[in-house]
Each structure stands twice: as C-alpha cells, then as structure tokens.
Amino acid sequence: MSLEKLFRPGSVAVVGASSSEASIGAELIKNLLRGPFQGPVFPVNPHRKWVLGIKAYATVCEIPDPVDLAVISVPKERVLAVIDDCGKKGVGAAVIITAGFKEVGGDGVALENALRDKLRQYGIRAIGPNCMGMIVTNPEVRLNASFAATPALPGNVAFLSQSGALGEAILALAKSLGLGLSAFVSLGNRVDVSVNDLLQHWAEDDSTSVVLMYIESFGNMQRFPLIAANAARKKPILAVKSGRTAEGARAASSHTGALASRDLAADALFEKTGILRAATMEELFTLATAFASQPLPKANRVAIVTNAGGPGILATDVLASGDMKLAGLTPETIQTMRAVLPAEASVNNPVDMIATSGPAQYEVCVSAALKDPGVDALIVIFVSPITIDSYAVAQAVVRGKELAATPEKPVLVSFMGKVAYEEGARYLKDHKLPVYVFPEEPAHALIAMDKLRRFRERPIGDVVRFEVDKTRASAAIDSALARGPGSQLSPMELAELLSAYGIATLPLEVVDSPENAVQAAERLGFPVVMKISAPTLVHKSDIGGVLLDLKSPMEVKGAYYELSERARALSSPHHLIVQPYARGGQEVILGFSSERTAGKLLVLGLGGVYVEVLKDIAVRLCPITDAEAHRMIESLKSAPLLRGYRGGAPGDIDALVEMIQRLSYLAESEPRIETLEMNPVLIRPAGHGVAVLDVRGKLRE
Amino acid sequence: MSLEKLFRPGSVAVVGASSSEASIGAELIKNLLRGPFQGPVFPVNPHRKWVLGIKAYATVCEIPDPVDLAVISVPKERVLAVIDDCGKKGVGAAVIITAGFKEVGGDGVALENALRDKLRQYGIRAIGPNCMGMIVTNPEVRLNASFAATPALPGNVAFLSQSGALGEAILALAKSLGLGLSAFVSLGNRVDVSVNDLLQHWAEDDSTSVVLMYIESFGNMQRFPLIAANAARKKPILAVKSGRTAEGARAASSHTGALASRDLAADALFEKTGILRAATMEELFTLATAFASQPLPKANRVAIVTNAGGPGILATDVLASGDMKLAGLTPETIQTMRAVLPAEASVNNPVDMIATSGPAQYEVCVSAALKDPGVDALIVIFVSPITIDSYAVAQAVVRGKELAATPEKPVLVSFMGKVAYEEGARYLKDHKLPVYVFPEEPAHALIAMDKLRRFRERPIGDVVRFEVDKTRASAAIDSALARGPGSQLSPMELAELLSAYGIATLPLEVVDSPENAVQAAERLGFPVVMKISAPTLVHKSDIGGVLLDLKSPMEVKGAYYELSERARALSSPHHLIVQPYARGGQEVILGFSSERTAGKLLVLGLGGVYVEVLKDIAVRLCPITDAEAHRMIESLKSAPLLRGYRGGAPGDIDALVEMIQRLSYLAESEPRIETLEMNPVLIRPAGHGVAVLDVRGKLRE
C-alpha cells in the first residue's frame, strides 16, 4: 500500500479539533490553515458546531465530502472508535497524535496492538501514535498536519525523527539555517509506517533530494539493509543514531561478542548501506546544508580561495584529516589569478588573495579555480575587512561560479564574522550556495560528500554461495543441541561444522591420559601444542592453559600433568587437547555474533592479545561479498602487517578473503549458532593458506 | 617591563588619524570614541587641524598633555620616524597597525628589525606591526584601539589572535554568542609583545578568568612551557592551533622523527602545560562559553534533567565518550523529584520529566539534582512544547540553582529549537548560565572542564638530576663529531654515551671475519644475534639485516656470510655486530628528537613493527618528571600488555620509568645530539630490568 494518501491527501479531517488557546487540537487546525493546505480542512468535534471559524462535524462519518487523511488528537480511550469511523468513511490515512500507547507499557501495549489490527483491517496507513505529526511542503499539497510551533521552509530535504520532542527543535534549527524541507515526519511509536516505508517513499519522491534521520532504534532488520542501500544509492541519507553507549555495556561471553557491541552494529549497518552517520545533531545540519544544494565532487581535489590566511589553514587542516587533497593549480589558472591579485597575494592553494582583494578578485579567482581541470571542489572564504562590501563579494562569488559553468563541481562558502549575519550571506543562500560561519564546516561537509562518492563508486561484489555439506553441519549442531540450547559446541563438533563449510581447522585429538597424549602427539607429529578446552574458559592463557612447542614425549607427558593440575581449578567439565604446533605468519581473530536487531555481525581483528588491547577491528554485517571481504581487511590499521611489512612475507590474503566469505555463509545459513569465534587464525605466507588454531562456538539460547 | 601602559593607558594618540569614510584612520578614532575611552584621545595628522570634530596635532610631540599609548596607522616608511617622536615624547606603549614588515619578506624584515631596535631603545612596549589592534573592556579603561567593525561585549574572557583577519570574525562570533571579553589582542608580527607576555599579564589580571588563543606558531620556546603551565594552573587557557598538517609532511630520518611531527609537538606542549586544545574555532567557543561562567566540577558525575528523552540520550552518548559518568541519584533525590513529576516520567539519570512538565518541575528537579551529594555537574535540557512558557522555565532553572545553593557545581543548559532564540535563553545568559542550541555541546564542554580539573589535580612530579659521567658522554660525542656534524653515532659510541647516562645496552662486538664472529659469540655466550649496522639503514629487517637465535659456531659463520652478502647491496660503510640474544618480555621503542620550535620530544611506543603500523605512541616534552613518565606509559593503549595481560608476567615498569627519565636528562644535557632512538627495548618481567637491543643516534647538523 503506498503512502499517497498521507503525502498527497486531497482533504483532511482533524478529529479532536478545538478552539482553546494553546491546545493541540487548535494548533493542528491553525497549522493546516496557515499552510494553507491545498484542499478542505474538516474539524471534527462532537461538542461544537464550528472550530476557529470553520464548520465542525460530530464524527468523521458526518462529513459530506470524501476524506483522505484524518489527524487524530482525542483521548486515547477514544482512538479505536475514531478509527472505526474512519474505516466506515473510507479514510485512507491517519496521523495519530494521541499518546498513551506502547510507550507507557502495560495496557498501552495492548491498546497499540488493537490499534494496529484495526488499521490493517481497514487498510488505513498511519503515522504515530505518540507523535507530533507530519509536514509536506510540496506547493500542490502544503500539508502541516502537526502541532509544531515552527513552520517548515519549502525545500528538498526530507527529515524523519524518532523523537517527537526533537522534531520541534529540528524544525526551528532548519529554519534558522535556511534549510528547506520537502517533508518532516515525527514517527512516534510506528504502529504502521516505519523507517523502511519512508525510505522507500522518499527514494522515489521527486521533491526530495536528501534524507535526514534521527533514529534511536532500527525497525524491521530483515528488510532495512536492502531498502536503505537502495535508497542511499539514489539519494544521500544522513543519520544521527543515538543511544550508542547505553546498550554497549552488556556483558560479553566471548571476544567477538564484546567487540561487536550495538554501536558497532549500527556502524556496520551504515557501512553496508551507505548511510552517512553524523556524530551530533549539529554535524547533521552542517552536512545537510551542503548535500541539499551541491553535487558530489567527482574526485577529492579541493581548491580554497580566501582573503585571509588563517581560515584557509583551518580548512586545510580539516581536509587533510579526511581523505581529501589540496588541488595543484595549472599554470593557466595561476596566471589568470596573478593578473588580478595584489603582489603580496599567495597563488598557491589555498589561494590567499589577502585582505585588500574585493569583488573583482573573488569573481576571477572563483571562476579560474572552478575551470581548472585539477579542481573537483571549491571552498570560498571571506572575512570582512571594513573596506570591502560583503554583498558585492557575495554577488561576485555567484558570478564567478556562473562564469565557470561547472555545475558538476560543488562550491561551499564560509562568510566569517559579522558578514555571516548580513545580506551577502542571504544572497548566497538564495543562489543555492551553502554558507557557513566557520571555515572548518565546509571542509567537513566535503569530506562527507566525497565519502559518499567513493561509496557509490566502489564495487558491491558478489555473495558467493559455496558448495557445503549442510547435512554434516546439521549433525554437528544436533550433537551439541543434545546438551540443550545455549550450549557450547565441543572442539570436535566445531571442527565438523567448519569443515562442512570448507573451513579446515588444525587436526586435534582429545586425550585423557599422559600415554594417550603421547600417542596423539606421535600421530600428529612433533612439535605439538597442548591446551585445556572448557566451556567456561574464554581466555585460555589467563590460567596458563596453553603450552606451546612440545618437542618430545617427555615434554608432552609433563604438559599433561601440568594442564590437568591447572584445569582442576576450573570446577567445570573440560578436555585436554593435542594439536600440531603451527608457526610462521600473522595471527588474526575472525568470528561472528548475532545481534537481535542487526542480524549477523562478522568481526575481523589483529590476533592475540592485540585485538583486545588495541581494538583494531573491522565489523561488517552478513552476508559479506568478496569485495567487502577485501575492504574489511584493508580497513584494519594493521593491514600492512598482513600485506608483508618490513621484510615480512605477504600473508595469504586470498585465503583469508575466502574464509571470511565462508564464515559469513555459515553465519547466514546456520541460525542455530549464536556466536562462533576462530582465535587465532594463522595467516601463512601467500599461497600457503590459513590455519585455524582454536575455535569456540555457542548455540542460540 | 609591564604592559600597564598598553592595558591601562591614561591617554591615547592616534597617529594617522583621518576623517575619510571607511578608512582605518577614521575607524580607529570612532572606535575609541564609541568606547568611550576613559581619557583623552588625540588625533595626529600633519595635514589637518581637526579630525572627526576633535582638535588634531601635526606630531605626537606637539600634544601638550602626556601620552601613554600611540596607535599608529601611517605608511610603513614613516613608522620609524613616528616611533622617534613617541620616544621623545615619552610615550610608553604603541599599537602598530601598519603592515609591510616581516610578513612581506626582503626589505620588510630589515624594517621590522630596525623597528624592534628603536622600540627597545625608547623602552616602548608594542603590539604589531601588521595587526588589527587591541581592545580592553574594563570599565575604568574602555580602550578600543582597533579598526574592528564589531565592538566587544564586556566580560571576563581574554582573546589573543595571531591572525588579524580572524580577529574580526572572532569578535563577531563572540558578540553573537553573548560571550563577553575582558580584552582582545591581534598580535600581528610580534615585534615586541609576545604570547608569553600576554599569558603572564592575563594570569595576574583580575578582570580575566579565561584565556582563548588562536595561534599558528609558538614564540620563545625556552620560556613558553613554564609561563603557560603557570598561567594554566591559575586560569583555563583554551587554544586553537592551526597549521597542523602542512608541517607534518617533512621527510623523516628515523622512526622517532617521523612520529614526532610538529602537530605532536604542539600536542606535547599542550599536554605539558595544561592548555586545552580545541579542534575547531567552533569548539573553542563552545568551551569558552562554559568556562567563562561555570566553576570546574569537583569530580566527573553528571546529572541530566530534561523534558524529552532523545536529547538526553544524545548528551549521554557524548559524556560516555569522555571520561564522564552519569551520577547515581540518592533515594531522597528521587523521592523529591517523584513528588512533582507525572507518573510517566523517568526518574533515573537522565531524568526525563516528559513534555508536560513545566517551570514547577524544572525548579524542583534542578534544585534536587544539584543538592544530591553524588552529583558534580548538571545539564538541563528544554525542548519547547507549545504549551510550556520558555521564559518561565528559564526563571525556574535559575531559581532551582539558587535554591540548591551549590555555586561549586557547574550548570549548563540546552534550550533546543525556537526557544534557543527567545527571551528565556537571554534570561539564562544574563544569569550567568551558558546556553546551547544542541544538547551535545554542554556535554562536550563538561568533558573539557573535567579534563582541566584532572590536569590540575595530578602530581607534577620531580625532574631527577641523575649522577652521570658527562666526561665520558662528551668523549663519545667528540669521537662521532670527528666525522663531521650531522654524523650518525657508531654502535660503540652510542653504548658509551648511554652507559655514561646510566642506561645499559646489551654488550656487543663489531666483527670483521667469520672467525672473529665465532670468537665474539663465544665470549658473549650462545645464543647470539647478528646484524648489519650502517648509517643509511634505518630499518634493518627490511633487507633481512637481523638474524636471531644463532645457537652454534656453525650458525654464526653462516650468518656472517649471509649478512655480508646482504650488506653489499647497501653501497655505504657498514659493520657486522654480534650481541647476546635477549628474549622474554614486551618490546617498546623509546627515543627523542629535537624540534626547532618545541625543544626535545620524547617518544614511547609499543615496539617492533606495531609502533609504525598502529601508531600507539606517547609523546612528551622534556624534561620529564617521574610522574610524567608513569603517565606516559599509562597513556599507551598497549599499557595493559606492559602491566601483564592474560597470564603474561607484569613488565618492569619501574625500570622503564627510570629509563625514560634518564633519556630525558640526556636529551636536555647533550644538545649536540639531535635524535636518539632505542628500538627495541625489551621490558623484562618486574624486577629484571630492561634491555636495550638496538640504538641509533645522530648529531646535530
């Protein structure tokens, strides 16, 4: 069912309309009339003949004309009855302002479920309940179905907020920055319309170029990654996701679990879909201002034209902190600029025209910089000396941009100081140029724009469906499940499971006597490793539970006694294990965990104790394509160590890439496994593969 | 010489005063009169009898009354003559606006040197040249000796800017934020008055509580660290330091050099002195607004009182990203709040009072939170629902704060949305409460305030003057100097030098034949290490120049031939070296480099290839106290590895602390050494000391 009746209603009824000063029922009517809404507005109030000068009806059913949208602000006990009326009347959509549902718990949850059933029954699409409403600025619609105190300027930015209270602030900020909105939706409890629905709608909406989101939690995660990725390839999507720390504190049962906290899950989701995450509301607006009016740069080479050195350096510092470069200017560009600039000007990039330069110099330098084939984006900075007219400078910047005729190159402006608040800045905004007070802001915005360009240019890659032996894998999981849900898998079960998915682990034998251990070592070949394996033991080395490089039967026997002694302290079932001693290569950790709201998260990190201490990890959402697996490795700070560093042999990256994909496939195919962690995995020199030295895994509860 | 005549002049002459519209000479007079300056203003202009209605004089000497300060804006050719006049007249201070000195190079440099000489000759303290002037708002002075278009609001924040152009912007921004200034100084070329002078002045100035700086380079580094540290212990000093990337790119001749780029030098300087670094101009203002009116918190426990959940979460996220905690509220506090709040309110921290709460609830909750002994700081957030009067809320917040009577606890406010621009926000500012538009900003500000508290509370420690053998050290350096300045020190010279400073290196022998090598190995004891040592070879392992764990004479001979072969490719003089093979411990890198502007920088990092790949390093400015050495180690992400991690033995931290101090002492005492790098240093288990496995060092050019 489309959202047509919500976003383009032909008529609106306000149920709970009121004339009382400062009541929501009055504000709803006033906002609709102020629009003015491009269709009739029908107040509904059983106790009044008219509301704020407009004829009122006792119920929706009594309205003689068709009603597309009902805005509902009645006591919560009456909402279901109103929906019944709407259903009978054939109303297609509802904005339910009323609070007191899921958010208050208890009866509220039941009430919300009943509401959902009724909406489905009548086929009514609804926003809310417990929201501040929605706004559409399209001149053919002009719908302000909210009780917001601030109207929205028309524009091309759609905004969804999971916090009603923030909605009011968002509208005021957008207005103060001159940021025009195509639509604003306060989602409320999401009884029906979800983030997914809105993303799908706005991806196809001609009046929307950029989507902003304030979200506290994700909705339907089965569909979200695909819907969001599809939308983000069409339009920039910028999001503030809050609540990152409150959830991150939960206790962890394995390395992977601890590392893949919820905030990493959100980051993985954004990384996967191409949604750009803003750290703060302020950054969200800084970025939105640029994305709303400027194209993405074609590459990362930036020119800066300024009349003061200091601000140019500040912008440069920020650019260099991202993956941006200062463009090298051609001799022609430099000559063109030199011809109009004072001798003291510096015609490097940043181009410091110095304080005596005015409109004439801005026009020529802006135009020349934009025409330069080595320039992909331009930052113009103006700090007003008293002798230069800022309005004339603003006009010159616009003329320079028009002269260059390079609409494909983004131009961002900083008007510093008093001029930030004067007509020149307004002139620039009116000519679709983003204007910032601080010179660092356009630099931050360009970094984000270029990040989106690179995201769109990079290959998506393929999800490989490997030939695997699911029967063997199931048998291994069944064997563990016999011990109950939530059980740890045994070393042998894990070896079986992984082997069924084409991931070979080092051979191992479980031993129960010193003689046994020696025989196993002889079968596997010296030197060997012996270790304690126990469900409760996450960090074997904490209790000295791993003994390496045992070269003789005597050493193996000694190790058996020593480990048996140490294992006794565990007071839980355990095994002793013998494995060949593998050496030579870089250790990594590779595993996955299941996140209730985000799906399966794969974690790759530099191995050993470093992964925990230095937190150099990459987290991605499954399924992982071949291209993603490569990027995952490259995103590690320690990637140079895997590629071969300072005389070290390059590691077998191809084998690691394949292993990442196979583990991703396992994670997706075996929902009964909650977490699995291979730690360490030895990355051998190129051509020699990878070796899994130790594995832990746990069934779903 | 004090800055008294600059900051409290009794009379001012404006040399180059003019009546022309939009001229600097006119703006200077206008700004002085607008103050109005609390004393007489004398225009000086040889061509006019009066300027802007005030009697003018042909020269400073003709002024009949005493003149304390001359503001000079004449063509650069005439500046020296004007200074001569000032000298004759007995003028005590000058603000030199005129440009065309050092900043234009060539003749300008000579002119500036002549200017400096003249100023010294007459004992005149001067700001500039090439600056926009200075402002003092003290009501007894009211000096606006600048051509700034924006006047400064009176207040307690002193601002110095190394960029004149930024100065104009700074004044406009301060005004728009309602941030009052005690003084503003555009430093210009710093022919006389320096950053050091101003810090010393403001540290003692009763009308200044906070100092802000925009700096592009540091001044006299011999004195700066001490002066700044002294000032920062008295008053918060916040700085934006730009130009961090341009300088960072210079080629590096050693690991330490590459790591200790100039930006790290600035960070080390700020770390040493307690100056808080802001990343952007915007952050500088965010922090300044809080520091200007609020005390530092006594500890890091924060309460948040809000009428909307979303903004509370946003603030919490930021707090958790710093070292801040959400305070646990006492049962009494919770009871007091519950008594006035709606049932749906959440009386955890953040206290979400929900949208229906108004002034009465704010007053009680603000007061109760502040009275709670477990709360050190409070953030109040208000998002305006249409039904609540924001002015009344502002009054309630102020009343709540007054009722609590806890002036020692900082209170920061976020008024989100439309109310940010209304009278309520103004009321709060008038009552000395910082108000922010975004809820993340007060959280960022509290993190910075708490950082300064911790800086002030931490022990400074002692610089230990070790008993060392400077004669032996000098002999080793002389021996290297015989090969010319800039030479590398030989392994033997380095061993001598370090040993003279009480830092023992592993014994080593330089060998020149296979037989020699075997004899050396037998003397040192097997197993041994052999390696190539050559001035041009920074990374020995790049060419396989290190062979470890040689256990027998045969292995040593083989290693000799192999290394000789590899060394041949070097085409530069080299030695082969035999050393005992040391194992068992964590490797670190420790070294120092000399920064022209910052002095000696000590660098400590996790050893091996990790230091370069993972950049986990600590950089500090010498001399380093015992307390600093400990903090340096603790600041490493990898510190847990040194303390003993997951069954590993704790390393000998005490020995490392001593080695850091000894190396700092060496760096300070031997200016002829430009860089020295010990890599790796093996940190043995506690009580077993540290072992320097390899050293490189270079003389000053």
Overall description:
2 copies of one chain form a homodimer. Chain A has about 700 residues and is of the alpha/beta class. Chain A folds into 4 domains: about 5-210, NAD(P)-binding Rossmann-like Domain (Rossmann fold, 3-Layer(aba) Sandwich); about 290-455, 3-Layer(aba) Sandwich (Rossmann fold); about 470-580, ATP-grasp fold, A domain (Dna Ligase, domain 1, 2-Layer Sandwich), CATH 3.30.1490.20; about 585-700, D-amino Acid Aminotransferase, Chain A, domain 1 (2-Layer Sandwich). Chain A has 24 helices and 31 strands. Chain A has a 7-stranded mixed beta sheet with strand order 9-8-11-10-12-13-14, with helices on both faces. In chain A, strands 15, 16, 17, 18, 19, 20 and 21 form a 7-stranded mixed beta sheet that branches. The first copy, chain A, starts with a helix and ends with a strand. The model of chain A is unreliable at about 245-260 (pLDDT under 50).
